[in-house]
Write a structure and sequence with these properties.
Length: 645
């Protein structure tokens, strides 16, 4: 139970003990800094750290260290020095971090063994594992850390050492044994018996290990658990790492735009905390944007990742390939493979080398890459089977080569496996990529019916998840003609607030009347209702004039109602691919731009592109053009507000 404000020091300590970090930070901030004990300074620093104030946290921990050391409390001083070592190393100040680690070791000289000695051993294991790549040395340090933690009842360090040992075993190829240890340690974290920082480290090691071996389903399960835990905790900062993992899973599941938002928010949180994780986050943003077809923004994200210390490959090489920069793609992926020996890192790069080498007609290099990929993946089997994601990756790579060599029967066999495996994993983008290749193989064998089925399914999937460039490629392979239409999007502004104000029954009646009016006005001007999009409509018109007349009629009809919601409308004219998907027969850049313009409109506004208004002819009153930058479009777009009153 929280203390009263009559005793602010007790209130601060109570909030810290409950891990209500923002409350604790505010309570400590109200106290006279000179009156704080070493323990209070340590708690205050912890509260600052979890509240997103790293510089304050470091300053407070330095003061806590001085206070503990000055009183001869060597064990406590060593613990704070070790925390400072982690802080500084995580934000890239490695020399400073090493200095604090040496300070922690010096404070323990002559002291009897304690739980802090276990944390020292755990830190030494991390150094051996990540900085040196010396896995036997890391295992020896982790065994010592685990034993010391067990002896001194330090459950946090015990589970951290257990999970880290599992991670090392996975990297050494002992997959099943490693994952067993990881699951055991993570179960302890899920139960809530560990401290917040330890819990986040356990989650991150667990999810990273699962992703390393292609166990995507396991990673997704732990990621969801981690996200629920992060959402419950009153923190800012380190849990952003969990959100980066969540973004990776969301991207794999095809929720690209939401994944980008999650990854961007995580990088904003972590930029002063974890340099390496932030770098990984920007790489993930690059991967998402590349799939969205936003190549310029993807390149910016890869550059930021590189600046912060993450290798931008293989994503950057694949981006270069997508932009037609074949020489840059070849050079990038070749250099990336020359610079890494670690098997899992090579597994992530070799499929890109196959794709790029096939594009460059260098089948010798492609075959060598597939052979190495298959050998490495076999070394990471779960018993006698490969992880589905790894197996699918091998089948796609081998299928590309069979396709290039003209062996259509083998290509179809391999790519069918890849399609089904990726579908089983629940990865729509990768499934659609395999379908495109399979469709090409069917077409070259002369089975046009099967080819169209695969290409059409791929096109629909790419459209659904917003992968514009891939959707256009699939449409081209289908031989679909582009159709020029004016696309119109409507949306109710403040629908959630209206629902809360009116209640369910009145809201349903209002929404039904809204739908009736909009459908009528769209139909009256010859428009086609393509989709109902939540609280709005997506419609297509043969001419810009008809679309603008419908938009004006919609606003006027709503304005004449006694009670009606505010609606925003956006329109754009352009070429779109016709799709066989019943739910959405149109796709392409023009549709996406119309939707973006609609989202930029204000309540009661009709916002259209300059070209649309120009093509609509005279008779429409409008504002002066304004320039808007829309996500996924390299250049700003001139838009104009049409006056309907």
């Amino acid at each position: 139970m929280a203390q009263t404000v009559d005793d602010p020091r007790a209130a601060a300590r109570d909030a810290a003990s409950r891990q209500s970090w923002r409350e604790a930070f505010e309570a400590y901030a109200s106290l006279d800094p000179a009156s704080l004990s070493a323990e209070d300074l340590e708690w205050y620093g912890e509260a600052a750290w979890w509240s997103g104030k790293l510089n304050d946290a470091v300053r407070l921990r330095e003061r806590a260290y001085v206070a503990y050391a000055g009183k001869g409390h060597n064990i406590s001083a060593a613990q704070v020095a070790l925390t400072l070592a982690w802080d500084e190393s995580n934000r890239g100040a490695f020399a400073v971090g090493q200095g604090w680690f040496a300070t922690a070791e010096r404070q323990l000289e002559g002291e009897e063994e304690s739980a802090v000695h276990g944390r020292i051993a755990f830190t030494q294991a991390g150094q051996a594992m990540f900085a040196e790549g010396n896995y036997p040395k890391a295992l020896a340090s982790l065994e010592r850390a685990y034993e010391l933690a067990r002896r001194f009842s330090d459950r946090d360090t015990q589970m951290l050492a257990l999970v880290a040992k599992g991670r090392v075993l996975v990297k050494m190829g002992e997959i099943e044994q490693g994952l067993e240890l990881i699951d055991e340690g993570t179960a302890a974290a899920v139960s809530g018996e560990l401290e917040a920082y330890s819990t986040t480290l356990v989650y991150c090691m667990t999810i990273s290990a699962c992703q390393d071996v292609g166990d995507v389903r396991r990673a997704a399960e732990w990621t969801e658990a981690a996200n629920r835990w992060c959402d419950r905790l009153d923190v800012t900062g380190f849990p952003g790492a969990c959100r980066i993992h969540r973004a990776e899973i969301m991207r794999l599941r095809g929720d690209l735009e939401a994944a980008e938002k999650v990854a961007t928010a995580a990088c904003d949180e972590l930029q002063d905390f974890e340099r390496y994780i932030t770098a990984s986050g920007y790489y993930e943003i690059g991967e998402i944007r590349r799939r969205l077809g936003d190549f310029a923004s993807a390149e910016e994200a890869y550059a930021r990742a590189n600046e912060l210390g993450a290798d931008p490959q293989p994503g950057l090489a694949l981006l270069n390939l997508g932009e037609g920069k074949l020489e840059a793609a070849v050079a990038g992926i070749t250099r990336a493979l020359d610079e890494v020996e670690e098997p899992l890192s090579r597994i992530r790069r070799l499929p890109a080398q196959v794709e790029i080498a096939v594009a460059a007609r260098d089948l010798k290099t492609a075959r060598a890459a597939v052979a190495e990929l298959e050998e490495l993946v076999d070394s990471y089997k779960f018993g006698s089977r490969r992880a589905p994601a790894f197996d699918a990756t091998v089948h796609v790579a081998a299928g590309r080569i069979a396709l290039a060599e003209g062996d259509m029967e083998e290509a179809i066999r391999l790519l069918r496996h890849a399609r089904d495996e990726w579908r089983g994993v629940g990865a729509p983008f990768e499934t659609a990529q395999a379908r495109v290749l399979l469709g090409i193989a069917f077409r070259r064998r002369g089975d046009e019916h099967a080819a169209i089925a695969e290409l059409d399914a791929a096109h629909a999937a790419f459209e659904r998840i917003g992968a514009r460039a891939d959707a256009e490629r699939a449409a081209e392979l289908l031989g679909r003609q582009q159709t020029r239409r004016t696309f119109l999007f409507t949306d109710i502004v403040g629908s959630t607030r209206l629902l809360e104000t009116l209640g369910n029954e009145k809201w349903k009646k209002l929404l039904a009347r809204h739908d009736e009016l909009l459908e009528e006005q769209i139909s009256n001007r010859g428009g086609e209702v393509v989709q109902q999009t939540g609280d709005g409509f997506f419609a297509a018109f043969a001419t810009p004039k008809a679309a603008l007349e419908a938009a004006i009629a919609i606003q006027r009809a709503l304005d004449a109602e006694i009670v009606a919601p505010d609606v925003r409308i956006g329109a754009h004219t352009g070429d779109a691919f016709e799709s066989a998907a019943a739910s959405n027969p149109y796709g392409g850049e023009a549709v996406h731009l119309a939707a973006r313009i609609g989202a930029a409109a204000g309540a009661g506004e009709i916002l259209v592109s300059r070209e649309t208004l120009a093509d609509a002819g005279t008779g429409f009153r409008s504002s002066n053009p304004r320039s808007e930058a829309f996500k996924g479009f390299e250049k700003p777009v001139d838009v104009i507000s049409v006056d309907w009153r």
